[in-house]
Specification:
- By secondary structure, the protein is of the alpha/beta class.
- It has nine helices and twelve strands.
- An eight-stranded mixed sheet has the order 5-4-3-2-1-10-11-12, with helices on both faces. A four-stranded antiparallel sheet has the order 6-7-9-8, covered by helices on one side.
- Strand 3 and strand 4 form a beta hairpin.
- The mean pLDDT is 92.
Length: 282
């Protein structure tokens, strides 16, 4: 699917999944619950998104997970909803905030990484800004991973090439795996958990009757493809929902999705509509 559809059409097409329990709702943050902004530190959850997640998390037999490239502590502090599992660093980190709990006290477990990978990530975070002393470069440290954002660059393609060249010069042996995204290059240890594996793990644990997975970038496409594999194996059912946060939605995201919504606002309206359908049937 490539063209966005209305929230009503999306909910109608996914209505059969609402009858299955347990139900698992998994959402990305940036570009899904939050609008894409030029400064990633300025991203805020849309108010309707917070209300919808809080309402969904309060329903019986409904599990809510926020699965983000941000650290678990960062995304929990931005979402601020209890009764939710927060999986950060694309699934390398995991923590749970109980209902009426304090998100600022989240304690997340982090997958182990080789010392060499941790050291290389720290080196890149320190040295890439020295090689590219540009105001548009934003470094996101999330050990053992690191991300370089270039959303504000006047020439995005040229910025992407400069960042990749700097990274390759500092990590010529490829100790960290490159994950180019939309206006971002992420470096992570080889074999580290990504969103596809994270979704598979949480499905294996919770054994939902159906899954809603929402996201907007190439990392979310990994989770969409994992969901497709889980459906084909009979492990669960579900719907992959791509969000058109900006005009340049990666083709692989659209190719892996079952439904496309036109914006983060539409995504939060969709979650709210899911809650209303679920609440009316209980």
């Amino acid at each position: 699917m490539s063209a966005p559809i209305s929230v009503r059409a999306a909910v109608d097409s996914a209505a059969v999944h609402l009858e299955r329990r347990p139900l698992l709702v998994v959402s990305d943050f940036d570009g899904t619950l939050s609008r894409i902004v030029n400064d990633p530190w300025g991203a805020e959850i849309l108010p309707l998104g917070r209300r919808a997640l809080r309402a969904l998390a309060g329903l019986p037999d409904v599990h809510v997970v926020v699965l983000s490239g941000r650290t678990a502590a960062d995304v929990a502090a931005r979402v601020r909803v209890g009764g939710v599992i927060y999986m950060g660093n694309h699934g390398m980190e995991r923590g749970y905030v109980p209902r009426r709990g304090d998100p600022d006290r989240l304690r997340a477990s982090v997958d182990d990484a080789a010392h060499e990978a941790v050291h290389t990530g720290e080196l890149l975070a320190d040295e890439v800004p020295r090689l590219i002393p540009e105001p548009w470069l934003i470094v996101e440290r999330k050990p053992p991973a690191v991300s370089f954002h270039y959303r504000n660059a006047p020439d995005v393609a040229a910025a992407a090439a400069r960042v990749r060249e700097a990274v390759d010069s500092l990590d010529p042996e490829g100790i960290l795996e490159r994950f180019p995204g939309r206006r971002i290059l992420e470096l992570r240890p080889f074999g580290a958990v990504a969103k596809g594996e994270a979704l598979t793990t949480i499905v294996d644990e919770l054994k939902p009757g159906s899954v809603f997975m929402l996201g907007d970038d190439v990392s979310d496409a990994m989770a969409f493809r994992a969901l497709r594999g889980l459906r084909e194996s009979g492990s669960t059912d579900g719907v992959a929902v791509a969000i058109q946060a900006r005009a340049e939605v990666p083709a692989e995201v659209l190719a892996a999705a079952d439904i496309v919504l036109g914006s983060p606002v539409e995504a939060t309206r969709f979650l709210s509509a899911l809650y209303r359908r679920l609440a009316s049937s209980t």
